[in-house]
Design goal:
Layout (H helix, E strand, L loop, with lengths): L3 E5 L3 H13 L3 E5 L5 H7 L4 E5 L7 H9 L6 E5 L2 H10 L5 E4 L4 H16 L8 E4 L4 E4 L2 E3 L3 H12 L5 E2 H8 L8 H17 L7 E4 L3 E4 L3
Parallel strand pairs: 1-2, 1-3, 3-4, 4-5
Antiparallel strand pairs: 6-7, 7-8, 9-11, 10-11
Helix pairs in contact: 1-5, 6-8, 7-8
The protein binds calcium ion.
Length: 222
């Protein structure tokens, strides 16, 4: 049987578009337009993945996501109309697996759905090939030593401790520079850039630290 994606979206045109694209990509879909209907439906017929709009009649997507997580590990992709919202959603740690911002291309959504499902199917051991020695700020990836600054080390460790989870630049800054308020977003970007270069130089895959468009960064499991 094909995998079923539950589309929760109250804009009929958008819902139809998502349905068409996912169908074409080989998925079954079911559709809900009211936030109140999601939890009962998931309990009765668990889908393989949920595309969950944030602004819904009945009950908002945040609330729905939180309750879903209290009983289910089904992959959830939150859909929101504003990039700024994502930062706030990340801070709330709703347990969503990914975030998509409107307007999006349906093609992008299909790609994200596939990626999240692939990840969900992976076995969990996080980054076995990465060894972090805190006392010396020493990191080795696949046996290759990464020559990191203290900041880069902290950044890598934080990301690697939560593989697959997306962090906003703001969250990373709070973590790396807890006392400073003057650091700009670009600082994180520049550290990430150097970190990737060093991973690459050590023979690792620099894409292990992935940038998530409009959101921030995450560390991929190997
Ligand atoms: Ca909506």
């Amino acid at each position: 049987m094909n995998e079923t994606v539950l589309i929760v979206e109250d804009e009929p045109k958008l819902a139809g578009l998502l349905h068409d694209y996912l169908k074409q990509a080989g998925f079954e879909t079911s559709l809900l337009a009211n936030g109140l209907e999601v939890v009962p439906q998931v309990k009765e017929t668990p889908p393989q993945l949920i595309l969950l709009d944030l602004m819904l009649p009945g009950r908002d997507g945040m609330d729905v996501c939180r309750e879903l997580r209290s009983f289910s590990r089904v992959p959830i992709i939150m859909v929101t109309a504003r990039v700024e919202e994502i930062d706030r959603l990340l801070g709330l740690e709703l347990g969503a697996d990914d975030y998509i911002c409107k307007p999006f291309s349906p093609r992008e959504v299909v790609a994200r759905v596939k990626a999240v499902l692939r990840r969900a199917g992976d076995s969990p051991p996080p980054a076995e090939d990465l060894v972090l020695d805190e006392s010396r700020y020493l990191a080795t990836l696949n046996g290759h030593k990464l020559d990191l600054t203290a900041v880069e080390f902290k950044l890598l460790r934080y990301l690697a401790e939560h593989p697959g989870r997306i962090f906003s630049r703001g969250q990373l800054m709070d973590r790396i520079y807890p006392d400073e308020r003057v650091v700009s977003d670009r600082t994180i970007d520049s550290h990430i850039k150097k970190l990737r270069r060093k991973i690459d130089a050590a023979g690792g895959d620099e894409e292990r630290i992935r940038s998530v468009y409009g959101v921030g960064y995450k560390f991929e499991r190997s």
